[in-house]
Amino acid sequence: MAKILAVDDSVSMRGMVAFTLRGAGHEVAEAENGQLALDVARGSSFDLVLADVNMPVMDGIAMVRELRAMDAYKGVPILMLTTESHTEKKMEGKAAGATGWLVKPFDPEQLLATVKRVLG
Amino acid sequence: MAAVDLTQFHKTFFEESLEGLDAMEAALLALDSGSTDHELVHTIFRAAHSIKGGAATFGFADVAAFTHVAESLLEEVRSERRAVDGALIDLLLRSVDCLRAMLARSSSGQPAADADSEALRGELVRLVSGAAAPAPVVAAPEAAAVGGWDIRFVALPHLLQTGNDPLRLFRELGQLGRLEVRRAFVLDSAPARLAELDPGQCHLGWELRLHGAVARGDVDAVFEWLDGDCELAIEALAGEAPAAVAAPAAVAAPAAALAPAPASVATVPAAREATATAASGEGSSIRVGIDKVDALIDMMGELVITQSMLSDIGENFQPAQLERLREGLLQLERNTRELQESVMRIRMLPIGSVFNRFPRLVRDLERKLGKQVRLELHGEHTELDKTVLEKIGDPLVHLVRNAIDHGLELPAQRKAAGKPETGTLRLNAYHEGGNIVVQISDDGAGLNRAAIVAKAQQRGLLGAGQEPSDAEVAELIFQPGFSTAAQATDLSGRGVGMDVVRRNVRDLGGSVGVRSEAGKGSVFTIALPLTLAIIDGLVTAVGHERYIVPLTSIVESLRLDAAAVRRIAGGGEVFQFRGEYLPLMRLHRAFDCADAITEIERGIVVVIEDDSRRVGLLVDELLGQQQAVIKSLEKHYQRVQGVSGATILSDGSVALIVDVGGVVRLGQRSKAA
């Protein structure tokens, strides 16, 4: 089972993601913005990071850029949770180093399928 | 794994969405008052965006659809394709109101959209450039797969740095059909010497063949995230299998997308019931800062230490340890009090959440009344008990409304009076003693003394020719149904007067008063108890019963001679106290207690005060001071006149808490009668 960092400023979304992943046996840490996520990431190691794009303090894209600059997170999969269906945000995320994305709204099954896809 | 029940997140979703709307409203108002802070636009956008995402995730399609259009409009603002003007802010503020209503309906299980919300959504849609909202993305029908695919996949050097892994891709392809790696090759970009090889760089390419009736879309999906990270060529393999085989797979996707609909319909009644009960419980959850929880845990730790120290003494007690025991008990008392304070603090919330409604209200009133108002908020972080906070909103709204409607003058009048055209309305909250004080002050015209006196005389509250003091004039406005006709507008004609404000504040155990100076303005002051749930009280005995009198209301306790008490017409009794006659209430008579002391000189009279009106209560004796945790009588029994609640005493017996305001009013009536 994997260690996953879930980053989202929305308590309900984060709760849903964390609950679903924990239910599948994963260990989940939560952070409510990119800045906090970086702090958490520095103090621990994760197999996967799931991050919202639009967040106060530090958005998901800046967070990905910072994470990729850290040695420990060079190759760790990072998925953006994004509502924008247009390619713009996805490409911005990718350029920053994101592995892929999951388009909101997603249901718990879709979330687990995507996580499984990344973690194997 | 069992399906995840998303309804458990609905309440959180509603709470955070309402918070988001509050933030959105505040930011819109800040923009309206001329701020050009770009972060405001981001805040507004983010709020709409989060609500949309959550609404879609948790199945509130109407809310999602509405926010979607609002978000598109905001996106135009954010990308500076649309300028912010008053009309746009009006529209967005109306959208905020509309979304609040939609969320309220959703949370009580009703359909979120109604005619109003649809009309407003239409307005937003028309405004968004290109008019039409983007059509839902419908997957193009898949071309039927052929017998398989030849895939040439060449990684760009940075591919690994995005966290993507060619092995994962192969695994996924292998799940679609039989995967054959026909050739793997090293690219020219690879360094010639092993020592120069960077493990973070990928210099490999593959020629793959995927056998089987696989839809092209499924293959594309595997490489979906790799756009820009690789060179990819996918070609159909000449017909190994009939193309038709792939078709059902392609059709399966839309079918699956439709499938949840009936299922979710089936769960609706249950969910509806759940949210309905939650709604009737008035969302009895509370968000608590982590520091408060930490304080509680600290306190708990100390309590455990004290407990172990005491049990240590108790295990093997010797009289010599009496001093240590006493110390331990003192420590226990301190711990208990601190723990109690920490627990009470959990119920405390900043008054800012109530203050935050005022910028909007003030803006609306400014427009409606043609006045100019600058709103100042102070002490937003002052904390109040949650229950007090929930109930103080309406009285405050009324006072703010009054201040703008009646207090502040029109710009021209202000100019004529030598004042700045823009009036100032100040809301201030602060601690004072055991109270929270909330002040609403304006620099308007002050109370209209002439109009109030005339009205009072007309209503028979004042005799003709009587010249009341300023304090008496101020008191008059709190009289039931008192509203000066000269001032009545559509705002004040709501049937809610200052008497209702005073009653609401009194119900919370507080008081309200006003100071006013002609031409300078008025200050309304509301004093509220820190918390409703605990009071410091004086335990009194009346017969076999125990009554608790709130300490803050006690002026003095005294013994009276029977001769000092006079009977007045109508059967009431009065006694002289500091130069004034106070009604005497025999508690045993008021509450019908058996075996109580009836001779005045044998009992004790406790003088209590509410709003500078006093009454003496005759009780048998005073048993001492105690903190009382208030239990609602209404909840467990029914409302009883003169009693504000009950509590359990340290010996386990039940005592009733005297409702000071009610008893004083009762006493004053008997005196008047």
From TrEMBL, chain A:
Span of domain Response regulatory: 3-119
Pfam family, one: Response_reg
Hydrolase recorded as keyword: no
Assigned keywords, A-Z: Phosphoprotein
Annotated positions of the 4-aspartylphosphate modification: D52
Tagged with keyword Phosphoprotein: yes
Name this polypeptide is given: Two-component system chemotaxis response regulator CheY
